[in-house]
Write a structure and sequence with these properties.
377 residues, Hypothetical protein af1432, 61% helix
């Protein structure tokens, strides 16, 4: 499908922080995607928790499989809307590069440990990974991605953090958090595809784990509708097939809803190009009805899965692992690898090192340094 006038155009990119000659066979956004895929941080996502610790079961999602699902959903929707699929894929694959081991538990611990040092937030860390921490090129730190990819990676940002970034990079990727602007439509789409993906796969993983049941999920209108629809067509269906078909129908309807609602919003706003689209407010969206249904599902998952006693027990132990690691590295800088030594900001170096760990490396390192095995790896 041809690129729509309001789509991001790699030929009109705002460029890179360090100028580079164009690639002879790839667009700027294709080049960004390839750099992400070949990065160390991307490979580590395969051993980072989504909800369940990586070693708890081979079928559960990890940060890597989640990122792939976001990319697939984003490209499918973006194709129908005429957006740039390569930019969508880049942002989707990179959006969780800064996530800690042990999922949100890790972020909460590091944010608490870093309270006196500027805090910790995984979106900011993802940008830090691609701007500084990846070390692959002789002429600069980071991956030197295009502006459009970097702004998409910075999904959330507090005003305080935005002001800090703006001071270093005037008019850059954080400016929209200060002036009320929007990122590209491709970035907006990745934000929504992220929500659709994790709602769906957390339903799948939650049921497969036995922590929630389809019977419980029937109280959620979005699941109830497609479970009943599936059984009306396949009344004998049970088990994994019933779960998979219900989720497939639920996913498909959310995709169609986003396409229809976004098309209507774009038609009403009539942006003339990608820059104009940034000034029109959020245009990639659910319909009001689907937004309400998605929110209800998120609330159910938070209450019944993310705060399930079995998940919480693992979370508590994971928090102890990371908190103790942080204190060890903070107290004794010699414990950090030379690549992370930073005399000017030792606490941030500790957070960088821990955030880059996989679940199993964090557990092994904690056991090596403390002699305690809190979670069997």
């Amino acid at each position: 499908m041809l690129r729509a006038p309001y789509a991001s155009d790699p030929a009109r990119s705002r460029g890179r922080r360090h100028p580079e000659a164009p690639a002879p066979t790839r667009s700027e956004f294709q080049r960004d995607r390839d750099r992400i895929v070949h990065s160390t941080a991307f490979r580590r996502l395969v051993y980072k928790t989504q909800v369940f610790l990586n070693h708890e079961g081979d079928l559960f999602r990890t940060r890597l499989t989640h990122s792939l699902e976001v990319a697939q959903l984003g490209r499918s929707i973006g194709r129908s809307l005429g957006l740039d699929e390569d930019l969508i894929e880049t942002v989707a694959l990179a959006h969780d590069l800064g996530h800690t081991p042990f999922g949100h538990a890790g972020q909460d611990v590091l944010n608490d440990c870093m309270k006196a040092h500027g805090g910790f937030e995984h979106n900011l860390q993802s940008l830090r990974v691609v701007d500084k921490l990846e070390q692959r090129y002789p002429g600069f730190d980071g991956l030197n991605l295009s502006f459009e990819s970097r702004e998409g990676i910075l999904k959330h940002c507090s005003r305080r953090d935005a002001e800090r970034i703006e001071e270093r990079e005037p008019g850059g990727v954080a400016a929209r958090f200060l002036d009320g602007g929007q990122p590209s439509l491709e970035a907006q789409l990745c934000n929504l595809a992220d929500e659709v993906a994790y709602n769906a796969h957390d339903v799948d993983d939650g049921v497969r784990s036995g922590l929630v049941t389809l019977e419980q999920l029937e109280e959620v209108p979005l699941v109830h509708r497609y479970l009943r629809e599936t059984l009306s067509i396949y009344p004998e269906l049970t088990g994994k097939r019933l779960l998979a078909e219900t989720i497939r129908r639920m996913l498909s309807q959310q995709v169609y809803d986003i396409i229809d609602a976004t098309r209507a919003a774009i038609e009403a706003a009539a942006p003339v190009d990608a820059e104009d689209a940034r000034t029109k407010g959020p245009l990639v969206r659910f319909s009001p009805e689907m937004r309400h249904a998605s929110t209800a599902l998120k609330r159910f998952l938070f209450k019944n899965l993310y705060r399930h006693p079995a998940v919480q027990a693992q979370r508590d132990r994971a928090e102890q692992v990371l908190r103790e690691l942080f204190q060890i590295y903070l107290t004794d800088p010699s414990r950090l690898p030379a690549d992370f030594a930073d005399g000017e900001d030792h606490a941030r170096a500790c957070a960088d090192y821990i955030a880059g760990m996989t679940d199993r490396f964090a557990l092994k390192e904690h056991e090596r340094l403390t002699g305690k095995r809190l979670i069997a790896a």
